[in-house]
Amino acid sequence: MGRKLTMDELNRMSVDDFKDSEKVPVVVVLDNIRSLSNIGSVFRTSDGFRIEGIHLCGITAKPPHREIHKTALSATESVDWKYFESTEESVVELRKSGYKILAVEQVENSIMLNAYFPEKGQKIALIFGNEVKGVEEKIIELADSCIEIPQWGTKHSFNISVSVGIVLWDIVLKLK
Protein backbone atom coordinates (compact mmCIF):
# COMPACT_ATOMS: atom_id res chain seq x y z
CA MET A 1 0.00 0.00 0.00
CA GLY A 2 1.48 3.27 1.05
CA ARG A 3 1.43 5.74 3.85
CA LYS A 4 -1.17 8.40 4.34
CA LEU A 5 -0.15 11.75 2.82
CA THR A 6 0.49 14.71 5.10
CA MET A 7 -1.43 17.95 4.74
CA ASP A 8 1.67 19.56 3.18
CA GLU A 9 1.97 16.76 0.63
CA LEU A 10 -1.66 17.24 -0.43
CA ASN A 11 -0.66 20.69 -1.73
CA ARG A 12 -4.12 22.20 -1.20
CA MET A 13 -4.80 25.52 -2.86
CA SER A 14 -5.73 28.56 -0.81
CA VAL A 15 -9.22 30.06 -0.91
CA ASP A 16 -7.83 32.94 -3.00
CA ASP A 17 -6.22 30.50 -5.45
CA PHE A 18 -9.50 28.56 -5.61
CA LYS A 19 -11.43 31.76 -6.36
CA ASP A 20 -9.00 32.59 -9.19
CA SER A 21 -8.89 29.06 -10.64
CA GLU A 22 -10.80 27.79 -13.66
CA LYS A 23 -14.02 26.08 -12.57
CA VAL A 24 -16.02 23.22 -14.03
CA PRO A 25 -19.04 24.91 -15.70
CA VAL A 26 -21.60 23.37 -13.32
CA VAL A 27 -23.97 25.06 -10.90
CA VAL A 28 -25.76 23.04 -8.23
CA VAL A 29 -29.28 24.29 -7.52
CA LEU A 30 -30.75 23.33 -4.14
CA ASP A 31 -34.55 23.33 -4.33
CA ASN A 32 -35.87 23.86 -0.79
CA ILE A 33 -33.38 21.74 1.17
CA ARG A 34 -34.22 21.46 4.88
CA SER A 35 -31.10 19.92 6.37
CA LEU A 36 -28.27 22.26 7.26
CA SER A 37 -25.88 19.29 7.29
CA ASN A 38 -26.88 18.42 3.73
CA ILE A 39 -26.30 22.01 2.64
CA GLY A 40 -22.85 22.01 4.23
CA SER A 41 -22.00 18.69 2.59
CA VAL A 42 -23.00 20.07 -0.81
CA PHE A 43 -20.62 23.02 -0.29
CA ARG A 44 -17.79 20.67 0.64
CA THR A 45 -18.39 18.37 -2.34
CA SER A 46 -18.72 21.35 -4.68
CA ASP A 47 -15.36 22.63 -3.48
CA GLY A 48 -13.81 19.19 -4.02
CA PHE A 49 -14.92 19.11 -7.65
CA ARG A 50 -14.18 22.83 -8.15
CA ILE A 51 -17.57 23.63 -9.62
CA GLU A 52 -18.68 27.11 -10.54
CA GLY A 53 -21.21 27.66 -7.77
CA ILE A 54 -24.34 26.83 -5.83
CA HIS A 55 -27.81 28.39 -5.94
CA LEU A 56 -29.67 28.20 -2.62
CA CYS A 57 -33.41 28.44 -3.20
CA GLY A 58 -36.56 28.85 -1.12
CA ILE A 59 -36.24 27.45 2.41
CA THR A 60 -32.63 26.39 1.81
CA ALA A 61 -30.56 28.09 4.52
CA LYS A 62 -27.60 30.25 3.59
CA PRO A 63 -24.21 30.85 5.17
CA PRO A 64 -23.02 31.91 7.59
CA HIS A 65 -24.59 29.31 9.83
CA ARG A 66 -22.89 27.16 12.46
CA GLU A 67 -24.64 23.94 11.37
CA ILE A 68 -23.74 24.46 7.69
CA HIS A 69 -20.14 25.24 8.66
CA LYS A 70 -19.81 21.97 10.62
CA THR A 71 -20.06 19.89 7.45
CA ALA A 72 -18.85 22.47 4.91
CA LEU A 73 -15.47 22.86 6.67
CA SER A 74 -15.05 26.43 5.33
CA ALA A 75 -16.13 25.52 1.75
CA THR A 76 -18.69 28.32 2.11
CA GLU A 77 -15.69 30.65 1.80
CA SER A 78 -14.37 29.08 -1.42
CA VAL A 79 -17.49 28.12 -3.39
CA ASP A 80 -19.51 31.00 -4.86
CA TRP A 81 -23.20 30.95 -3.98
CA LYS A 82 -26.34 32.98 -4.53
CA TYR A 83 -29.70 32.91 -2.81
CA PHE A 84 -33.05 33.00 -4.66
CA GLU A 85 -36.51 33.33 -3.13
CA SER A 86 -37.68 30.62 -5.53
CA THR A 87 -36.02 27.89 -7.55
CA GLU A 88 -37.85 29.20 -10.62
CA GLU A 89 -35.90 32.50 -10.36
CA SER A 90 -32.64 30.55 -10.33
CA VAL A 91 -33.64 28.47 -13.36
CA VAL A 92 -34.68 31.56 -15.34
CA GLU A 93 -31.32 33.24 -14.63
CA LEU A 94 -29.34 30.11 -15.50
CA ARG A 95 -31.25 29.57 -18.75
CA LYS A 96 -30.59 33.18 -19.79
CA SER A 97 -26.90 32.53 -19.13
CA GLY A 98 -26.85 29.49 -21.44
CA TYR A 99 -26.99 26.62 -18.95
CA LYS A 100 -28.59 23.29 -19.78
CA ILE A 101 -31.07 22.68 -16.95
CA LEU A 102 -31.08 19.13 -15.56
CA ALA A 103 -33.33 18.07 -12.71
CA VAL A 104 -32.06 15.06 -10.76
CA GLU A 105 -35.30 13.20 -10.23
CA GLN A 106 -37.13 9.94 -10.89
CA VAL A 107 -39.66 10.77 -13.59
CA GLU A 108 -41.12 9.18 -16.70
CA ASN A 109 -38.56 9.32 -19.51
CA SER A 110 -35.68 10.29 -17.24
CA ILE A 111 -32.19 9.58 -18.55
CA MET A 112 -30.09 7.26 -16.42
CA LEU A 113 -26.98 9.07 -15.23
CA ASN A 114 -24.66 6.49 -16.76
CA ALA A 115 -26.38 7.02 -20.15
CA TYR A 116 -26.20 10.83 -20.05
CA PHE A 117 -23.27 12.42 -21.86
CA PRO A 118 -23.01 16.22 -21.82
CA GLU A 119 -21.49 18.11 -24.71
CA LYS A 120 -17.91 19.20 -24.05
CA GLY A 121 -17.92 22.75 -22.74
CA GLN A 122 -21.67 22.68 -22.03
CA LYS A 123 -22.66 24.74 -18.99
CA ILE A 124 -24.89 22.62 -16.77
CA ALA A 125 -27.24 23.39 -13.89
CA LEU A 126 -28.11 20.39 -11.71
CA ILE A 127 -31.25 20.74 -9.61
CA PHE A 128 -31.54 18.66 -6.44
CA GLY A 129 -34.83 18.61 -4.56
CA ASN A 130 -36.18 18.60 -1.05
CA GLU A 131 -35.35 15.58 1.11
CA VAL A 132 -39.00 14.44 1.24
CA LYS A 133 -40.78 15.96 -1.78
CA GLY A 134 -37.94 15.95 -4.31
CA VAL A 135 -37.71 18.54 -7.09
CA GLU A 136 -40.90 20.60 -7.38
CA GLU A 137 -43.16 19.55 -10.28
CA LYS A 138 -43.15 23.06 -11.79
CA ILE A 139 -39.33 23.01 -11.78
CA ILE A 140 -39.28 19.60 -13.50
CA GLU A 141 -41.44 21.14 -16.23
CA LEU A 142 -38.88 23.95 -16.67
CA ALA A 143 -35.94 21.54 -16.97
CA ASP A 144 -34.43 20.55 -20.31
CA SER A 145 -34.13 16.95 -19.09
CA CYS A 146 -34.24 14.84 -15.97
CA ILE A 147 -31.45 12.51 -15.01
CA GLU A 148 -31.78 9.65 -12.58
CA ILE A 149 -29.21 7.73 -10.57
CA PRO A 150 -29.61 3.99 -11.24
CA GLN A 151 -30.44 2.08 -8.05
CA TRP A 152 -30.89 -1.62 -7.35
CA GLY A 153 -31.78 -1.87 -3.67
CA THR A 154 -35.01 -1.77 -1.70
CA LYS A 155 -34.90 2.00 -1.15
CA HIS A 156 -35.84 4.36 -3.94
CA SER A 157 -33.65 7.32 -3.11
CA PHE A 158 -30.31 8.46 -1.78
CA ASN A 159 -29.65 11.19 0.75
CA ILE A 160 -29.26 14.46 -1.15
CA SER A 161 -25.62 14.89 -0.14
CA VAL A 162 -24.87 11.40 -1.50
CA SER A 163 -26.81 12.16 -4.71
CA VAL A 164 -24.84 15.37 -5.23
CA GLY A 165 -21.57 13.46 -4.79
CA ILE A 166 -22.55 10.72 -7.24
CA VAL A 167 -23.87 13.10 -9.91
CA LEU A 168 -21.04 15.63 -9.64
CA TRP A 169 -18.41 12.87 -9.85
CA ASP A 170 -20.02 11.50 -13.01
CA ILE A 171 -20.73 14.83 -14.73
CA VAL A 172 -17.37 16.41 -13.88
CA LEU A 173 -15.50 13.38 -15.23
CA LYS A 174 -17.55 13.45 -18.43
CA LEU A 175 -16.99 17.20 -18.91
CA LYS A 176 -13.25 16.86 -18.38
List keywords for this structure.
Alpha/beta knot, alpha/beta, 176 residues, seven-stranded parallel beta sheet, 8 helices
Distance between the termini: 28 Å
Q: Tell me the number of strands.
A: 7
Q: State the helix count.
A: 8
Named CATH topology: Alpha/beta knot
Which architecture does the CATH hierarchy give at level 2?
3-Layer(aba) Sandwich
Q: Any low-confidence stretches, pLDDT <50, length ≥5?
A: none
Q: Tell me the major beta sheet.
A: 7 strands, parallel
Instruction: Estimate the helix proportion, in percent.
Output: 25-40%
Number of domains: 1
Structural class: alpha/beta
Strand order of the largest sheet: 3-2-1-6-4-7-5
Proportion of strand residues: 15-25%
Shape: globular
Instruction: Provide the gyration radius in Å.
Output: 16 Å
Describe this entry's structure for a reader:
With 176 residues, the chain is of the alpha/beta class. The protein has one domain (24-149): Alpha/beta knot (3-Layer(aba) Sandwich). The chain is 38% helix and 20% strand. Helix 3 (36-48) links the parallel strand 1 and strand 2 (51-57).
Q: What topology does this entry show?
A:
Layout: H1 7-10, H2 15-20, E1 24-31, H3 36-48, E2 51-57, H4 66-72, H5 75-78, E3 81-84, H6 87-96, E4 100-104, E5 111-112, E6 124-129, H7 137-142, E7 145-148, H8 160-175
Parallel strand pairs: 1-2, 1-6, 2-3, 4-6, 4-7, 5-7
